[in-house]
Amino acid sequence: MKYVVTGGAGFIGSHLTDELINQGHKVVVLDNLSTGKRENVNPKAEFVKADITKLAEMRPHFSGADGVFHVAALPRVQVSIEDPDKTHDVNVNGTLNVLIAARDAKIKRIVYSASSSAYGNVEAMPLREDMKPKPMSPYGLQKYIGEEYGRLFSLLYGLETVSLRYFNVYGPRMAEAGAYLTVMRVFLNQKNASTPMTIVGDGEQTRDFTHVYDVVRANLLAMNGDKVGKGEVINIGGGKNYSVNQIATLVGGPKIHVDPRIEPRHTLADNSLAKKLLGWEPKMNLEKEIATLL
């Protein structure tokens, strides 16, 4: 089979590309290297430097593909607050371009990397797919719009789509510098630099963390599953949350607190739909895997 992976030079996309190559598939990686790294790309994949905001530039590379994994995005909530125009262009217009290119190339299915940021600050836990999204950032809204575009392309054009809402993905190749760092990466960097870990607010906000290997497995199941393809939205999360303070303790080292900011207080995935539709459940253990990142 031949697959296109947008954002295949990035954190999640490169791991997904590796696994597709390991399974014997042909892979075309499309990435403009704005956040991804060329050295992340599997040498057996075909690499194309292309920007998803430029439809004409990327359209030819969808020809002959069986499926598309749309991972490319400008991630992180804070970045979208500071630059909503740029992130909208990539996360909304870029996603629309990917859907158009896939439709016109008569590709069977797209698996879209959505985000739990779409939920916003929902008090009831765990978070279920039937809850009304209440995004608290441009990023959360932008990723939700991508889900809705996927649903519409399935409804109107017969393009099979599945949206996977990721919960705080971590693991090897997380971004180590720049504006797109996860809280876990920030703590690891601070520990390596022998500086105190900066905890926002009281540190009792909680997040559901998901290992990148579990995310890759979910993508492959979503691409091949016979119970999905009509615009479904599915949580991909560990089903267990940890406070920021707990993560800091697992990393180990001195801590300081900084002013709180606007963000959801808690996230916790109900992953029962993933089990039902994809046969997926998380396998990686956070306490064990953090130790491998130190």
How would you describe this protein?
- This protein has 294 residues and is α/β, with parallel strands linked by helices.
- It folds into two domains: 2-169 and 209-236, NAD(P)-binding Rossmann-like Domain (Rossmann fold, 3-Layer(aba) Sandwich), CATH 3.40.50; 171-208 and 240-268 and 283-293, Alpha-Beta Complex (UDP-galactose 4-epimerase, domain 1), CATH 3.90.25.10.
- The protein is 37% helix and 20% strand.
- The protein contains ten helices and 13 strands.
- It has helices at 11-22, 55-58, 77-82, 84-104, 138-157, 183-192, 212-224, 244-251, 272-278, 286-293, and strands spanning 2-6, 26-31, 46-49, 67-70, 109-115, 160-166, 169-170, 197-200, 206-208, 210-211, 230-236, 241-243, 255-258.
- The strands form four sheets. Strands 3-2-1-4-5-6-11 form a seven-stranded parallel sheet, with helices on both faces. The protein has a two-stranded parallel ribbon with strand order 7-10.
- Strand 5, helix 5 and strand 6 form a beta-alpha-beta unit.
- Helix 1 crosses helix 7 (212-224) and helix 4 packs parallel to helix 5 (138-157).
- The longest helix has 21 residues, at 84-104.
- The protein is globular.
- The N and C termini lie far apart (37 Å).
